[in-house]
Write a structure and sequence with these properties.
The protein starts with a helix and ends in a 13-residue tail after the last helix. The strands form 3 sheets. Strands 6-9-7-8 form a 4-stranded mixed beta sheet, with helices on both faces. Helix 4 crosses helix 7 and helix 4 packs antiparallel against helix 8. By secondary structure, it is an alpha+beta fold. The protein is about 45% helix and about 15% strand.
Length: about 220
């Protein structure tokens, strides 16, 4: 009876493909039902390897795991992939790190889209100007940016009359910002209101939750690389 119950739980953690309409799924490791936004979907690649499906779009049946490093470690420890898929599944030794890199890539892709949409003002002067004249929803400081410049921009942000303070992102380095925004030497930038900016901030929060394990961790509490 216990084995049958476990099989039922694992079956509930499976989906039938990326088009599932359900908004909640069961974590294969903890067996708790959670919103899809708090989980990461995994599928089996054609060569039998477990792969993170960050955007939940890859074909085939998938398993869902709590979207934290500890949650994924637990799923690996419990051999949840082989039991859940009922087949041999190769789990890379660096699956946790690979998944984190994919989440970070999704953050940078979203930033690039925000830049192409004209929603990112780069440079110290343009960032200060945006704080005075635009609806700024986020501030980006390159990891390791000079404290003086960061302090001045943050002070300008606090002087704004808007009730909502911009989210502060500080875990991306200058090289990553340069590449995403297709501009050299990006140290400070302002993120303007818009759908692409909302996507970027949501992906930042998801990445930071994966790193910290804190379900309520905010993007402004950036974790340095």
């Amino acid at each position: 009876m216990i084995a049958a119950a476990q099989d039922t739980d694992l079956a509930a953690a499976l989906d039938r493909g990326p088009r599932t309409a359900e908004r909640t799924r069961m974590c294969v490791a903890t067996r708790t039902v959670q919103p899809v936004s708090d989980l990461i979907r995994f599928v089996v690649s054609p060569d039998g390897e477990a792969v993170a499906d960050i955007k939940s779009k890859l074909p085939g049946r998938g398993l869902w795991v709590t979207a934290t490093r500890n949650g994924l470690f637990e799923a690996i420890k419990r051999k949840a992939f082989a039991r859940g898929f009922k087949r041999d599944v190769r789990v890379p030794s660096d699956l946790v790190d690979r998944t984190e890199r994919l989440l970070e890539r999704a953050v940078l892709d979203a930033l690039a889209m925000a830049g192409k949409a004209g929603l990112v003002a780069t440079g110290f002067g343009k960032t200060e100007s945006a704080l005075d004249h635009e609806d700024v929803v986020g501030l980006l400081h390159a990891a390791g940016a000079a404290a003086d410049g960061t302090r001045k921009i943050d002070a300008a942000s606090r002087r704004r009359r808007s009730e909502a303070s911009p989210v502060v992102i500080g875990f991306l380095n200058s090289a990553q910002l340069d590449l995403a925004l297709n501009r050299p030497n990006v140290v400070h930038a302002a993120l303007l209101a818009g759908p692409a900016s909302e996507t970027f901030l949501a992906r930042c929060q998801r990445l930071e939750r994966f790193r910290t394990g804190d379900q309520h961790h905010q993007a402004g509490e950036a974790v340095p690389n």
